[in-house]
């Protein structure tokens, strides 16, 4: 089954048939990243080390290089370059902006916690898509975490007209030079002992930013995709090869891609400390997938193999078209679910899991229909974005489909609100924690806001989730701020923090509610206490705590970090 789009590129490219299997591949790459984040926050069991699933981002980078080189084999003059940049802007910016707006609505603390200058700086950097260009700090994960890869893609787009120029003669120079740069960075990290991202390094140069986030290191994967596309076209690779042999290559390449994940997983297990292992950061979390991905794309692009035929179904192509929106909005939706139903980290049902996935898809599908497609057409001067296929209903939906999506999404959100508002609906872990709360903490009241009834930790991957069970002392406002600081000793400054705003709504006195906070493993190993406090709405400081071990004049409750998470503390 094939689907052909009559492509007339708006960026000066050559009109060519669309490669349907590669469109569908985008969805599978996005699904890997979504699964990666679901493992961190919610209900899915880990297939491999969390970081291995992020190799879906590498597939995106390789695929981007492949498709752009296939569509734009040359940009001969400045007019062609301007059309190219205009097309790229129209392609990525509408959904990118929509995802920022959604992220701020879901997590306003990401901007309200900043002073005026920091807010302007972070806002401008994110709106321009420049957050990953600096190798220092955590700005690349600000506002909407997954958007860092779009920033990295923007860097690739900026260089593409220069990279594609004379590519037939210089492909090997560009491939080797980008790889050589990575080698030099790895050597520099080792020589100067540049640490990985961790507590106290939020605003410092770190090897994680240099080798995982930075476009200067990830451009090797983009150039791998360019080389694969050029070789496939230049030598007509697989065009005269029988379906059996093409299918065999598809299976072998896919097997290599999966084997690479196994190798990366083994490396992470063998070397859990990443500070002095920059190669593992670069290879294990992304670049190791580049060459297997490029080989797989060459096999799929021919359209002659069984795998390509299988994934070219119209409904999979639709998912491929929506994948960009899925990738950018899944994280805000996931954060919202985590806030509304924090206990899902341990005891979520498959029904609630399906609600979450439905919310992600419906939100992305609505944005694809009502934002991405019309804005792309408008920014390109009114040219229609239309895919001709035998699955027209999937690939060219009308506004009526979006209206149905809105109704279904409203039903999903209403159900979640209803489920979240049911009082006392705590899981077994929370009930057990309330019964086993230490005597010196039992009865700790935070001003007139809430009483801590229990807490427990759930170890997962490189870190843990802290669950806090509260009893409201009246109505708890949605905008109440909860401080969660990891400290080495009483009165100490935070080595890391997981502050949040109003994860649950308490609408009456004595209502129980549960919050959860993800704590990074590296920070836990540097802390002996978790200091918890509450900032009521409209106040400038922490409230006083009536009972329990505290610091800061009785305004932060000190919860000891369990020995299983940090055996170095002698409490």
Can I get a quick summary?
With 571 residues, the chain is of the alpha+beta class. It has helices spanning 20-41, 55-71, 78-106, 109-112, 116-128, 148-164, 167-191, 207-213, 215-234, 243-270, 278-284, 290-301, 306-310, 314-340, 344-347, 350-379, 392-395, 399-421, 428-436, 521-524, and strands at 445-446, 450-459, 463-472, 481-487, 496-497, 500-501, 512-520, 529-535, 550-551, 556-560.
Question: How is this fold's topology laid out?
Answer:
Layout: H1 20-41, H2 55-71, H3 78-106, H4 109-112, H5 116-128, H6 148-164, H7 167-191, H8 207-213, H9 215-234, H10 243-270, H11 278-284, H12 290-301, H13 306-310, H14 314-340, H15 344-347, H16 350-379, H17 392-395, H18 399-421, H19 428-436, E1 445-446, E2 450-459, E3 463-472, E4 481-487, E5 496-497, E6 500-501, E7 512-520, H20 521-524, E8 529-535, E9 550-551, E10 556-560
Antiparallel strand pairs: 1-2, 2-3, 3-7, 4-5, 4-6, 4-8, 8-10, 9-10
Describe this structure in words.
With 571 residues, the protein is an alpha+beta fold. It has two domains: 20-412, no CATH class; 428-560, Distorted Sandwich (Coagulation Factor XIII, Chain A, domain 1), CATH 2.70.50. Helices cover 54% and strands 10% of the residues. Strands 4, 5, 6, 8, 9 and 10 form a six-stranded antiparallel β-sheet that branches. It has a four-stranded antiparallel β-sheet with strand order 1-2-3-7. Helix 1 (20-41) runs antiparallel to helix 2 (55-71), helix 3 runs parallel beside helix 14 and helix 10 runs antiparallel to helix 12 (290-301). It starts with 19 loop residues before the first helix and ends in an 11-residue tail after the last strand. Mean pLDDT is 83; it is low at 1-12, 45-50 and 343-347.
